[in-house]
Structure formats: C-alpha cells, structure tokens
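Hypothesis: this fold can be encoded by more than one sequence.
Test: take the structure tokens below, design a sequence, compare later.
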C-alpha cells in the first residue's frame, strides 16, 4: 500500500545531481565561503552546460506528477554539495515560487522562464522589511495606483539573490506591498519588478555567518513604477487578500528549505561516518543501548533524526504534487529539518573535536550553513506556532 522506494529512473537522474555536487560544488565550496561576494561564474557556466547536455542526451525529466518531490530530492543532493552555491544557481527561485502560487496562467507563462534571450536569469522574493519579519502582515511598503502603473515605495531587507535579480541579470524581484494599509493583510499584494526598473536600488549586500556564496540584499523602492499587469493575480482587495498567496508560496518553498537542511545534515553525517570508518571507531547497531558507547548513541540518533526529517519532507512535497493542502505538513517538515540540521552539524563538530572546528575541513562551514534553515521561510518558532494553530484549530488572532 505504501512504497517509499524511489523509481529507478529517479535514482538514475539523482546520480547525475550527486556527481554535480561532488565534482563541481565541493571543490569550490571553501573558496566562495571565504570570498563572500565573488560570483562563481565557472560553476554557473558548468551547471548550464551540464543541463544542456542532459537535454541533448535526451535524459528523461521526472514525471510532472512528482515535480515538487523531485525538486526536494535534487535540492538535498545539491545542498550535500554546498547550500550557498545551490542558492546562487540562476533560476526562478523564490520569485518564481511566488509567481507560480499567485500569478494567472498568462503571468506564469510570461515570467517563469529560466532564460531570457538565451541568458540565464535570477528571481527573488522580497517580503521582509526593517520593521516586519515573522509578522508579514505588518508590511509597510506601499503600492499606489497612478494611471497605467503601480507606484511602489518602501524598503526590503535580506532578499536572497536580490543583487542578481535586481541588477545583474535580466531577472525580477517579487515585491510584497500594501495597496490599502487600512485593509491590513487583505491589502497585501505581490508585484513583479523587472531588473533595473528605475526607482529600485540595491542598497547593500549583507556579510553573513553562512551560505556566503548566496547574495542577500537590501533593496529600496522610491516611486518605482511597474505596469498594472505586474500585480500577480487579482487586484481586488478581498478578506483573505494576497496574504493567502504568501501562505501558498510558503507551502511550496518550505519543503524545499527542509530538503536543503537535510542535504547539509547528510554531508556532516557522511563525513563523520567516513572518519569513524578510517579510524576504526565502531558503530554497533542492534545491540542494547546499555551496551552502546555515547558516541554510538549520538551517531545513531543523528541518523534517525535525519531520516525522520526526510520522511516529513517527502510527505509535504508529495501532498503538493497530489494537489492536497499541505500547510501543516510543510511547516512540520521545515521545523523538524531546521532543528535537526542545527543539532547534527553541531554534534559533528563536537564528535570530531579539533578536526571539526578547523577550517581545513568543511564541517565547521556546514555548522554555519545549517542555521539559516531555522530562520528563513519562517523561523523555527513561527513554524511551531503554525503547527499548533492547525492542530488545535486556532486562528492567527487567537494564538500568536
Ligand atoms: C540569509 C537570509 C536570507 C533571507 N532571504 C529572504 C528572502 O529571500 N526574502 C524575504 O522576504 N526574507 C528573507 N529573509 C528574512 C527572513 O525570512 C526573516 O529574517 C525571518 O522571517 C525572521 O524575521 P525577522 O528577522 O524580522 O525576525 P523577527 O520576526 O523579529 O523574530 C525574531 C525572533 O523572535 C521570534 N518570534 C517572532 N515572533 C514570534 C512569535 N509570535 N512567537 C514566538 N517567537 C517569535 C522569531 O522566531 C525569532 O527567533 C532572509 C533572512 C536571512 C538571514
């Protein structure tokens, strides 16, 4: 009745992604961690040529009925390679997820391509502001209608791929702004702002703890004019309004962030396993925990937690593919995977001692890369809050 085995066609495709992670990402992982704002063009060029080769060789894409699950599987593989480089890969990304969730069929066809005039493009999503993070209903950026245009004013911070999307490629940023501040969350709508639109400026690019190969930008919008049909979906202000599109975007992106976390956690776990094998440190399964060493118990616990997070993530993605509402499961996967990867990578550093702490190996980097999975796309606390609300049947007003 239930089968968790991946089909041979998927396993074959994943081995290609694993080779990319191992051969293209790992060798440059440290370099782009240490040179935070350098652009990894040799990696991007290699990725495009690999993807062109795959199409030329007629490698079959995964079935459309498993698109979200497949995205999670490939995300895990690539983040096993390097999570920061993964986030830097040119693609519609978070901006694309917002277009897919909130756009009309015509808008999806117009904006959701990976290339423009043969050149790759990035797309970002800007919700967070200096005064608004977890409580996205508090957005203060505004969009007012003026003739044939919306005029956007406000500041957005911590926008992943903001620089590449806004200025350095032919991409776009999806900006969430209020068309009617008196209407609260009902008035919040997403707008596509094309690269280099006058009025949109990259104020700065952040220096970060982890995922340093990924650009994170602060953007300002000053009388930034976009055509009317760049508002995604309907301009009508209804009780739920565009906010349900924010939530629909998260339902699609949270399983992907969970898969990112799993990839980083697996990298650390694999490293520890190989270290134990090389140094004859046994891990004995199937014996009483009373007879196991503390190291064995720690390691088996790490493996177990990672598998649990992976199963929750697959379920959340599978539900999305099946057209089922997955808000609860997406938050469960994200909360579990974010916590698990933080614990696994810290434990890996601890078990390996000086080797784990040294910059000679990537384990300390994975510990830094891990933490973001507990912050963006809803923090650990916010996802736990959503889970509690959904299980107990409370509204966001009743439980906050
Ligand atoms: C590297 C990076 C990339 C990012 N990329 C993007 C992006 O592409 N687009 C985008 O829009 N944003 C992005 N963000 C922003 C991110 O989504 C926010 O940082 C996050 O939502 C938290 O918001 P905040 O920082 O304002 O924290 P706050 O909301 O101020 O929260 C601070 C702390 O309080 C806790 N907290 C808040 N409210 C509650 C509550 N009700 N109950 C319990 N605890 C609570 C939080 O969990 C957190 O621990 C990114 C952030 C980083 C660091």
């Amino acid at each position: 009745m239930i089968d968790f085995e991946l089909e041979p066609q998927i396993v074959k495709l994943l081995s290609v992604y694993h080779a990319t992670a191992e051969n293209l990402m790992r060798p440059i992982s440290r370099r782009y961690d240490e040179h935070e704002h350098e652009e990894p063009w040799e990696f991007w060029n290699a990725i495009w040529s690999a993807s062109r080769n795959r199409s030329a060789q007629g490698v079959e894409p995964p079935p459309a009925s498993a698109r979200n699950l497949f995205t999670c599987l490939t995300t895990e593989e690539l983040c096993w390679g390097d999570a920061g480089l993964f986030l830097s890969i040119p693609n519609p990304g978070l901006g694309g997820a917002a277009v897919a969730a909130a756009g009309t069929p015509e808008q999806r066809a117009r904006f959701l391509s990976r290339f423009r005039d043969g050149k790759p493009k990035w797309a970002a999503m800007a919700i967070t502001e200096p005064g608004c993070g977890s409580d996205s209903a508090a957005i203060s950026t505004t969009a007012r209608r003026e003739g044939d245009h919306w005029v956007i004013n406000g500041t957005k911070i911590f926008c992943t791929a903001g620089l590449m999307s806004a200025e350095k490629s032919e991409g776009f940023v999806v900006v969430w702004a209020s068309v009617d501040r008196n209407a609260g969350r009902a008035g919040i709508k997403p707008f596509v702002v094309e690269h280099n639109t006058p009025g949109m400026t990259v104020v700065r690019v952040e220096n970060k703890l982890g995922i340093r190969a990924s650009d994170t930008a602060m953007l300002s919008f000053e009388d930034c004019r976009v055509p009317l049909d760049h508002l995604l979906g309907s301009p009508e202000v209804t009780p739920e309004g565009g906010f349900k599109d924010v939530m629909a975007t998260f339902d699609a992106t949270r399983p992907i962030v969970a898969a990112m976390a799993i990839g980083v956690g697996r990298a650390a776990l694999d490293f520890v396993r190989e270290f134990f094998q090389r140094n004859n440190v046994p891990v004995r399964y199937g014996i009483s925990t009373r007879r196991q060493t503390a190291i064995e118990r720690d390691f088996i616990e790490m493996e177990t937690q990672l598998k649990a997070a992976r199963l929750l993530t697959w379920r959340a993605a599978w539900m999305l593919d099946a057209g089922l509402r997955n808000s609860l499961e997406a938050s469960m996967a994200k909360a579990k995977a974010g916590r698990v990867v933080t614990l696994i990578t810290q434990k890996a550093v601890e078990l390996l001692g000086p080797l784990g702490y040294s910059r000679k190996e990537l384990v300390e980097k994975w510990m830094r890369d891990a933490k973001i999975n507990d912050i963006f796309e809803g923090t650990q606390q916010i996802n736990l809050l959503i889970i509690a609300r959904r299980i107990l049947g409370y509204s966001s007003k009743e439980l906050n």
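The beta strands are 115-116, 119-120, 123-126, 142-146, 149-160, 172-178, 188-194, 200-205, 216-227. The first strand starts at residue 115 and ends at 116.
Hypothesis status: open.
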